[in-house]
Specification:
By secondary structure, the protein is mainly alpha-helical. It has two domains: about 10-110, Type II secretion system (T2SS), domain F (Receptor-associated Protein, Up-down Bundle), CATH 1.20.81.30; about 135-388, Receptor-associated Protein (Up-down Bundle). The chain has helices at about 45-60, 65-75, 80-95, 100-105, 110-125, 125-185, 190-200, 205-225, 230-240, 245-265, 270-280, 285-300, 305-310, 315-330, 330-385; strands at about 20-25, 25-30. Helix 10 packs antiparallel against helix 15 (about 330-385). Residues about 5-20, about 20-25 and about 30-35 have low confidence and may be disordered.
Length: about 400
């Protein structure tokens, strides 16, 4: 029987309204019936999960029975589909199930690392502390993801604008010059001829039909290749080698790995299991391969630092710091420091990337548009020179 539960809750349709409850100035209890059935395939935004775990931690710290608190949270959630899942969890808690068991029934919402941490918190009697750590872990992930997304949005937006302008020139402007050059009987330079040819291609019916089909085929083959182990490994390895972007992605993965390992070890989870859960949390196959090799060596009795030493993708600094943590008995503390260090590195990398990309993208846009414009005026310059 879960100690933080309470007596079984009545069924949803017959549920009585709970009395208002105030926690840290937030009043719960203005309940409303949920109109959605629990969806085990539902995916929930990271920010919703962050708030969910933080609120659970506050409720436990305040002495609120978790089953009752979750019921109240469910009915006040803005995400009603997620609220129906929380309500289902509250009913299971009320009937005596452990929180980790309840969450495990929603694998699309709660990752294995989440369930594992909560299991450790239940076993060690530190569930409230673990829930707060989970919230911090999700917050760090969300911040890193936001920084990377922010660094990519500007150059992508400008490049899309450049392609749009180029297509507009080739479709609407270049054909008018083509007619004018034919009337003038001008001799066309190679660059002008190339632009006129491109214009004829993009204005042809075949391009309008073929381009989307080719794009669809490319996306299909990319997705198909990425679903295979060898394809995923090849693509992720290439991503890490992309100038500027690769370094940023690697450092964000190191933040996730250090943060996750520190949180898991702090919560009392054995090292091998913690490494396995780090594999599940990683988004890069090269990092996953390094962690799988590490698990194999740790299982044989080797230290974590030694097991990571052979992985080329893992920086020597990280290995050295882990070695110091092992020798001083402060591995979790050292991993936390590494996480903070790489968080700062990610912020600096985002700043460098943004500063480098802005002039680069502007130059590329100017070069594309300028080349089209110059190609159109070259025949006119030749005619003027001939007349002079």
């Amino acid at each position: 029987m879960a100690e933080y539960g309470r007596k079984p809750l009545p069924e949803k349709n017959n549920k009585k309204k709970s009395p208002p409850l105030t926690v840290f100035g937030i009043t719960f209890g203005e309940t409303s019936y949920l109109d959605y059935e629990p969806d085990r395939k539902l995916k929930v935004p990271q920010n919703d999960l962050l708030v969910f775990f933080r609120q659970m931690s506050v409720m436990l710290t305040s002495g609120v029975p978790l089953a009752q608190g979750l019921e109240l949270l469910a009915e006040n959630m803005t995400n009603k589909k997620f609220g129906s899942c929380i309500f289902d969890i509250s009913k299971k808690l009320g009937s005596g199930e452990e929180l980790s068991t309840c969450l495990n029934s929603y694998p699309r919402i709660f990752e294995p690392i989440t369930v594992g941490l909560i299991e450790a918190g239940e076993a060690g009697g530190i569930l409230s502390e673990v829930l707060e750590r989970l919230a911090l872990l999700l917050e760090a992930r969300s911040k890193i993801r936001g920084q990377i997304t922010g660094a990519l949005i500007y150059p992508i937006a400008v490049l899309v604008l450049a392609v749009t302008i180029s297509l507009a020139l080739l479709i609407f402007i270049v054909p008018t010059f083509d007619d004018m050059f034919k009337e003038m009987g001008a001799t066309l330079p190679a660059l002008t001829g190339l632009m006129l040819t491109l214009s004829k291609i993009v204005t042809s019916p075949g391009f309008a039909i073929g381009a989307p089909i080719i794009g669809f085929i490319c996306v299909y083959f990319f997705k198909t290749a990425y679903k295979t182990p060898s394809g995923r490994e090849t693509i992720d390895r290439m991503v890490l080698k992309v100038p500027l972007f690769g370094d940023l992605i690697l450092k964000s993965e190191l933040v996730s790995m250090s943060d996750t390992l520190s949180t898991l070890i702090n919560s009392g989870i054995p090292l091998v299991e913690a490494l396995q859960r780090c594999i599940n949390a990683s988004n890069n196959e090269i990092i996953k391969i390094a962690l799988r090799n590490s698990i194999s060596l740790v299982t044989q009795g080797q230290e974590l630092s030694y097991s990571l030493m052979s992985a080329k993708v893992i920086p020597r600094l990280l290995v050295s710091m882990i070695k110091i943590g092992e020798e001083t008995g402060a591995l979790s503390f050292m991993l936390e420091n590494l996480s903070n260090f790489y968080k700062r590195e990610v912020e600096e990398a985002v700043t460098v990337l943004t500063k480098a990309m802005e002039p680069t993208v502007i130059f590329v846009v100017a070069a594309i548009v300028g080349t089209i414009v110059i190609s159109l005026y070259l025949p006119m310059f030749d005619l003027i020179n001939q007349m002079g």
